[in-house]
Amino acid sequence: MGEDLRRGPGEAAVAGARSRAADGIIGSSPGIQRLHELIHRVARTNATVLVRGESGVGKELVARAVHRLSARADQPFVVVDCASLHENLLQSELFGHEQGAYTGAVRQKHGLFEAANRGTIFLDEIAELTPALQVKLLRVLQSHSFRRLGGTADLHVDVRVIAATNRSLESLIPERLFREDLYYRLNVFPIEVPPLRDRRDDIPLLAEHFVRRGTESLIGDAAVSEAALALLRSYDWPGNVRELEHVVERALILSQQHTLEPEHLPAHLQLADAQVRPASDQPMALSEIERRHIAHVLHHCNGHREHAAQLLQISTRTLYRRIKECAL
């Protein structure tokens, strides 16, 4: 007979948890408003959640918000990076092992599912799970039970599962890289996090947030100039919110005053003004036309200079020289 680790979370936590904001998710764009709505709706339930979106959009923040707004808010929130460990190590991390289960297992180890009992476990990069671990995870979702590595007793847990992926699980199923039955178990309540390029109106709010957080340890009060904000809004942000955070942090370090200006931003962001044409009809000098065209191509390539050189049909060395000569 198995050991039962389940205990119901206290109902008293529900009211307080629901009154909290979805921490860390900043923005007022329609996409983010819809995201907040979905988070609040699913947080009231115990449904399994699959958070989808590009790298850097904040999928873990969504998972944490669901947990904080749920009746499990006062219980553990355990994060697992499914891509970071070898299969055997990840199996031991997830489900634990018994003493002597393998060479080096000198004592019993409790797994992360046990650590998350009564709370939430967040499985990041779920698409990276091996087929063998997918089978074990499917069993946990179906029966709320598992066995430690090398064990014989079933352990029962009450754990809410939130998974995340930046890959298309549907495309992995025909290739037998992801189990179809596990997909349907995880995809009970999908949440799609929009990329930053689709919510540009949120960029000033996000930049202000990162500046405010960064100035606590760097330069004191600071602000972002309108010119710098214009560049931030014009960029496509392939790295999404995470990239914006790093750009602001870098700008704060470079800034010697208390206003972040375009010159404090990376070169490929400074070039975003290349698409802006002069207000007057005055003809531009040939050098200015060249400067703007190089800037436009670099912006199109998201700052990737090797790719830009190929499009311009010049060598990378020549492109570096022209960037320097044009003060780009």
Quick synopsis:
It is built from 15 helices and ten strands. The protein has 328 residues and is of the alpha/beta class. Residues 8-22 and 274-280 have low confidence and may be disordered.
Question: What topology does this entry show?
Answer:
Blueprint: E1 3-4, H1 12-18, H2 30-43, E2 49-52, H3 59-68, E3 77-81, H4 87-95, H5 112-115, E4 120-124, H6 131-143, E5 145-146, E6 155-156, E7 160-165, H7 169-172, H8 180-186, E8 189-192, H9 203-215, E9 223-224, H10 226-234, H11 240-254, E10 259-260, H12 267-270, H13 286-300, H14 305-312, H15 316-325
Parallel strand pairs: 1-6, 2-7, 2-8, 3-4, 4-7, 9-10
Antiparallel strand pairs: 5-6
Helix pairs in contact: 2-3, 6-8, 9-11, 13-14, 14-15
Largest sheet: 5 strands, parallel
Question: How are the strands of the largest sheet arranged?
Answer: 3-4-7-2-8
Number of domains: 3
CATH architecture of the largest domain: 3-Layer(aba) Sandwich
Task: Give a written overview of the molecule.
Helices cover 43% and strands 10% of the residues. Residues 8-22 and 274-280 have low confidence and may be disordered. It has helices spanning 12-18, 30-43, 59-68, 87-95, 112-115, 131-143, 169-172, 180-186, 203-215, 226-234, 240-254, 267-270, 286-300, 305-312, 316-325; strands spanning 3-4, 49-52, 77-81, 120-124, 145-146, 155-156, 160-165, 189-192, 223-224, 259-260. α9 packs across α11. The protein has 15 helices and ten strands. The protein is of the alpha/beta class and 328 residues long. The chain has a five-stranded parallel β-sheet with strand order 3-4-7-2-8. Strands 1-6-5 form a three-stranded mixed β-sheet. The protein has a two-stranded parallel sheet with strand order 9-10. The protein has three domains: 3-194, 3-Layer(aba) Sandwich (Rossmann fold); 197-265, Orthogonal Bundle (Helicase, Ruva Protein, domain 3), CATH 1.10.8; 275-328, Arc Repressor Mutant, subunit A (Orthogonal Bundle), CATH 1.10.10.60. The chain is elongated, with a radius of gyration of 25 Å. 31% of the residues are buried.
